[in-house]
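ASSEMBLY PREDICTION REQUEST
Request ID: AP-0331
Submitted by: J.K., bench scientist
Number of chains: two
Total residues: 730
Priority: normal
Notes: Please return the full assembly, not individual chains.
Input sequences:
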Amino acid sequence: MVWGAWICLLSPLVAACLITLGGRRLSRRAAGYVATTACFVAFGGAVASFVGLLGRDASQREVVSTAWTWITGGSYQSGLSILIDPLSVFMMLIVAGVGSLIVWYSVGYMDGDPEERRYFAYMALFVFSMLLLVQGGNLLLLLAGWGMVGLSSYLLIGFWHERPSAIAAAKKAFVMNAIGDASMALALFLLIQKANSLDFGILGGQYSSTVANLVALGLLGGAVAKSAQIPLHTWLPDAMEGPTPVSALIHAATMVTAGVYLIVRTHAIFEQAPKVADLAAGLGALTLLVAGLIALVQVDIKRVIAYSTMSQIGYMFLGAGIGSYPNAMFHLMTHAFFKALLFMAAGIVIHALVNEQDIRKMGGLRQLAPRTYWGFLIGSLALVGIFPFAGFFSKDSILAAAMDRGTYGYILWAAGLIGTFLTGLYTFRLLFIVFWGEPSAFVREHFHPLGRDTVAVALAVPVGVLAVLSIVGGWIQFSPWWHPVETWLQTVAEPVVSPESWQEWLSIGLSLLLGLSGIAVAWLFYGARRLAVPRLAFAQRTLEHKFYFDEAYDALFYAPAVFLANFFRRGVEQPLIADSGRDLGDDTRDLGGLVARAQTGLLRTYALAIASSVAVLAIVFVVLK
Amino acid sequence: MIALLGPEVTWYLGVAAFLFATGSLGVLLRRNPLIVLLSLEIMLNGGNLALIAFARNLGDGSGQIFALAVMAVAAAEVVVGLGLIVALNRKRVTLDVDRLNTLRG
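STATUS: Completed
Returned structure:
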């Protein structure tokens, strides 16, 4: 069991090193298979750990394996250790399982790219970092993994480095995440000062409310940045500049959900700081609404899905914030299935249309790519939460849990329900525009179907597997009747809310109804085109500018910084530093010129100077004597 | 005392100062290197006269020995100086010290 976890952690790292060191000795295709194999091995290790834990008594399901002492400073020390408990194994299964499917898909998607090896090395590095994040046995290792997933995300967003927009997006993502990393590091500093340790166990200790609030706030800051929640969300849509499998793996299925994992993992501290937990839930609710609204007007196929990711992570934050940890984790899992499915189906569309992502040029793809259409449809239904697809089971239980939190909970609940309607609307707007109707001129001209070679297999099989998972994956838990996920996670994160049966059923009914009505409205506007899309110039402008977040940040941070820098350049550097050097040189030369004038080169002048000096000295001597 | 037979030592010193001043004026004002060299010799002789006058006045012979040493050095210096002047002349450089200002800063 322990060895399984170590294999799970290390095999992607080995693959990354192998591809990097192998260089050209490895063919580009082989590099892809090395990475894929490593991820599948990691998944095997995760399964081994899972089986190992399953065989134990519930109270025994926590194993810490320490390789060596990593850092010692004074009385503080932390080891390079991994933690195997239900929560980490749960995440390992998702990360390695979905990860290996997506890396396999990449073999097809990235086929022919001149820098395939670099891509797969980065992918393997990412999977390793993500596993380090979820398996790290203390907060320090978690932070290390946290930073490394940020790094690999940066590298992969900017993978097509000849595109200036990709580089800008990568930098934006990195800076935003660095803000979160810093806030999280501050929280850890405070914990070291108060508890002199970073083991997960210390989180349950008693802290003064100020300390608990500050630590929780710091951790929340990290989670918000990594999971693209308001106010640190603006990097995620831009991150779609990366290759599509990257978006599927990092910016949908795994990395962006790390914030939810962090909150669940450190829930003890959030329970001591209920205000901060409420803030997390509120931010989640706000994000799910804002992202859902923005998604309504986006015209880039990947950006629509990116906003829906933000929105779904909003649900998870809502769930984690109100203390419904198993439901948040469950939604994380089903979301990983159907969101990876959506991205990869979209990737096939983009692949078939020669890298076109603008949905206004698409249409009628249902006739040309029926299997992709079915995959996309399953993903969309799961996303909206229609019975019996995966999202139905996980999303509704979060909403039901919110009803158990008093007035504030009802506000969140209402926001979540509105979000369901929006989800149906924007998801099926996308589906109808891309797949329904007659093939557009652009599609007829550029569409080329997949062949039957290995590329097509690598593209199609993972999509198929995820489609199946999106259908059946939700059946694991149906909160009114059976809850194995909750039982599994019980020892690590026991929920603090337990909704009544009627609340469950009410939420299920309402969200199903609202989801369906969202789909119906989308059908009226975009499917059957019975109604013209209303023209609301102001709302449209606001949404197309994404509620002016980017503009506001520009005005708040970027513009003042540039102004200050310019001011200091013109007011301080130019006159004081740059000019002073030049003036010093000029003055020295002038003075030198003045002295040089005394040196006439005429012997007589020198003689006169000597003689007159001696005469003066003689007179002085005589007078003073 | 023999020293008291002549005029006062002040007179000798006066003549020596006159010679020295004449020589230095010559060095400062004349432009012909030959004359400059000559004026230099006059200055040296002024100095010598002062040395000998003191030697007589104080009855100490070392002043006279000193004057002899100065003459020897002056002779050597004239050899070098005249050699330079002849070399300048050979190169057809105008014999004018104001023109020799290569060291000007």
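REVIEWER COMMENTS: The radius of gyration of chain A is 31 Å.
SIGN-OFF: pending second reviewer
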